Every structure is written in structure tokens, then in C-alpha cells.
Amino acid sequence: MQTVISWSGGKDSCFATMQAIKQGYEPKVLLNMMNEKGDISRSHGLPLSLITKQANAMKLPVKYAPTTWEDYETTFINALNKIKKQFKVQAAVFGDIDLVPHREWEEKVCAATGLEAVLPLWQGDRKELVLEMMDSGMEMMIVSCNATLGERFLGRVMDKGLLGELEDLGVDVCGENGEFHTYVVNCPMFQQAIQLPPYMATEHGGYHFLEWLRVY
């Protein structure tokens, strides 16, 4: 079955794609939701160019949908409808693990477009999933995090030592509650690792981000 991937650029959407492929789904296109200016991703604060790099590494097209938070659902449904028509997909893959309101929303927007909602990571143990990601060869960098983690965690690549640090701080190792977000630098689906531009740390409203100094 051919599918669109709800792609954030982070570990969960990436690993969900890998698992969906194992289950027989064929990714045809990525969908990334951007801010209203269309230059930064809504979920992870990533510049468009870094998402494009991942899509190119996967040899897949990517569609961008600029939106405000207020219009997010309508914009998402419209984007799915356009993708369904252009790419003839029958399903949409999402990376959520166990947050029921997220699944309900994804099933809602898929029902509105006649697509099957596929959640390959659903009900998986959070820590076990992250360990599986590492074992699969995924390289995941923390690109934003809350004040509990702070600036020192920005730019860190996830490994077992880092998981221990997160647990010591009482932080969910999967970041499923929004404690941190990641960017996938490399994985088995990529033809080559992503070459990242220089960056610096910034802080907005108590949340820490990587600010990319040269976007290309």
C-alpha cells in the first residue's frame, strides 16, 4: 500500500517510516507542516532546507504546508487531499507512540480524506523503541529542549549514555511529552548522512533551540 509520511524530521517519524516499510507500506511522499512564513517547521523548528536534505537522502519528494496553529487541521486535511490526488496514496504514516488524543486527531484527519491512519510505533515501550532506533543505525541529534534539560543538551547525539542522563533528570527518554525534539542526521533509509550547517544555541520562552547560522 502506497503512503504519505507525516514527517517532522525527528526520530519518531523516521523510525515509524522504517517500521511501515517492514510492514509492506511503500512511502511515496513526505508531508511537513511549516510555520505561516513557510521557512521553519511547525513541530521541531527546523529550516526547510534541513527537511529537504532528508527527503533528498531518501530519494522522496516532500510537500510543505505553511499554516498557523489555528488553521493547522484544515491545512493538514487540504494537504492530504492534494497528496492523495497527486500521488495516489491510500494511507498516512504517523510516529505517535501512546498519546491517545494525538491518535484520535490523526484518525480524524485521515477519515476526512479517505486514508488509512498507520501508527507503526503505537503502544511500544518508549525506552525500548529508542534503543531499537539506536540499534538500527539511526543517528539522532537533539535540536530543541525544555529548561529541565537546558542548553547543554543541544547538539547532543542520542546514545545509551545520554539515555541514562535523561532518566536521572526524570525526563522521558523518548521526549514524547515534548521535553525535547530531534533531527535525524543518518539512518538506513538515507543514501548519505546529512551534512549540517554551523549552529548556535538560542532560547525563547524557556525553551532552547539550535539556530542554524548558514542555511543551504
Automatic annotation (TrEMBL):
InterPro entries: Diphthami_syn_dom, DPH6/MJ0570, Rossmann-like_a/b/a_fold. Pfam families: Diphthami_syn_2 (PF01902). Residues 1-211 form the Diphthamide synthase domain. Transmembrane segments: none annotated. GO terms for biological process: protein histidyl modification to diphthamide. One of its GO terms (molecular function) is diphthine-ammonia ligase activity. It comes from the Bacteria. This is Uncharacterized protein (TIGR00290 family). It comes from Chitinophaga skermanii. The lineage of its organism: Bacteria, Pseudomonadati, Bacteroidota, Chitinophagia, Chitinophagales.
